[in-house]
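W.,

You were right to be curious about this one. When I first looked at the sequence I had no strong expectations either way, so I just let the prediction run and decided to look at it fresh. Below is the sequence, 235 residues in total, followed by the output.
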Amino acid sequence: MRFTIEPSPSGGFAVRMDGVAAPLSRHDTEEEAEAHKLAYERGAAAPVPGEIVDLPDGSEVKVRQVRPEDKPLFLAGWEKFGEESRYRRFMGHKTRLTTRELEFFTDLDHVDHEAIGATALRTGEGLGVARYMRLPDRPDTAEAAVAVIDAWQGRGLGGVLLKRLCRRATANGIRRFRASLLTGNRSMLRLFERLGEVEVRGVDAGVMGIDVELPVEEMETVLRSAATGHVGSRP
């Protein structure tokens, strides 16, 4: 990946990545832009610890928490996320990610807002993300979503990400996932059904709202891991 800094038409400076029209981030000063450019370069070059997972088809992926330096992976992955996949994920037509959205998706507190991503083991390519956001008025419930680039759909990656996200959620006191799905998105519904018992809250204008009780065994796994200090990951 190659990154450059350019004056932004709206003021300030933008950090851009070769081959992608949308900017990675915008900054008030050139110094701030340079600091972020260096962070993106370090993030792209340095190996990041994570859990190595074998998928059913024999592919190997690295699964880990999302970091602010992952904005280039999100932007590159967006280009491999087809129009239909974007429509299902955002329940509407969407052509690009804004710098504000990239910041929201990657600058996380890992407690109320968590995201678990997967990269290709050999190339480092971003493949998919599962995230939750705790509901302010229901602290034991979080809105959850999963997105996988087109070429890696149907290979078991979504289930891997959702299960790891479930573990992080239960560790942070979340007992229930809430999700909104297009009624025709049967594959995503099946993912949540494998996680736990699904309750349909309602259907409106082709969108189905569901709640999923997180499995008790995930909480037991978290408690055992905390007691033994087991991390279960490798670089």
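Here's what jumped out at me. Residues 27 and 33 are 6 Å apart (CA to CA). And, maybe more interesting for your project: The chain has one domain: 49-228.

Coffee later to discuss?

I.
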